[in-house]
Amino acid sequence: MSALPLRSESGVELEDLRETLCRVPSPVTVVTTLASHGPHGTTVSAFTSLSADPPLVLVALDNSSDLLALLRETGRFAVNLLGAGQEEIGRTCARKGPEKFASVAWSLDDGLPRIEGVAAWLSCEVQDLLPGGDHVIVVGLVKACDSGETEPVVFHRRRFQELAPVE
Ligand SMILES: Cc1cc2nc3c(=O)[nH]c(=O)nc-3n(C[C@H](O)[C@H](O)[C@H](O)COP(=O)(O)O)c2cc1C
Q: Is 94 in the pocket of ligand 1 (CB under 6 A)?
């Protein structure tokens, strides 16, 4: 007996949805905050710019994310855009637990954890928390930002990949 395909409420098959959306290349960020126990960071690909005036960005966090619970308390977060060669940090911060940031080289910038050598960095205040199905959309007001020289790593078809220029 073959298993029935899993369908969402809308009728779309979840496997089709996953196969379709994994073809959309996305940035690899580690979103951080400074909790009472120290720094906490989570790998997040659902990051995008939203508005220039006021300067807004958004990240989408799973309802069960520990980072989301911490952001509700701290009201602040940083977005660390990982660069080529920082894939291991992306894997490490995709785990659970309060100690996952222990092996990451970081420093405090604008009162938030900044990972060494990232391609770009933003410091944000939580402006809004909006429902987004099994995720919460966290809207951040950008208070500071900085860019590095390294190229970003991207997530595409379930793999970390580096950008190649089109000649
Ligand atoms: C490449 C990649 C992208 C991810 N993107 C997201 C994301 O956009 N939102 C999210 O909630 N989890 C995302 N995750 C999963 C979280 O990193 C993972 O569930 C993590 O354990 C959550 O940690 P936390 O509970 O400490 O927040 C991603 C994982 C990987 C490997």
A: yes
Burial class (CB in 10 A: 0-12, 13-18, 19+), 23: exposed
Domain boundaries, the chain: 26-152
Over residues 18-28, the pLDDT tens digits come to 999 999 999 99
CB 66 less than 6 A from any atom of ligand 1: yes
Atom of ligand 1 minimally distant from the CA of 97: 26
Report how far apart, in Å, the C-alpha atoms of 49 and of each of 22, 103, 118 are. Answer: 20, 29, 17
Ligand 1 centre distance from Cα of residue 109 (Å)? 23
The alpha carbon of 43 and the centre of ligand 1 are apart by a number of angstroms equal to 5
Instruction: State the closest ligand 1 atom to the C-alpha of 155, by its place in the atom list counted from 1.
Output: 1
Give the DSSP H/E element, type plus range, for residue 16. helix 14-21
Q: Which two tokens stand for residue 59?
A: 């990240």
pTM, two decimals, is: 0.96
- The CATH T-level fold of domain 26-152 is Pnp Oxidase; Chain A (2.30.110)
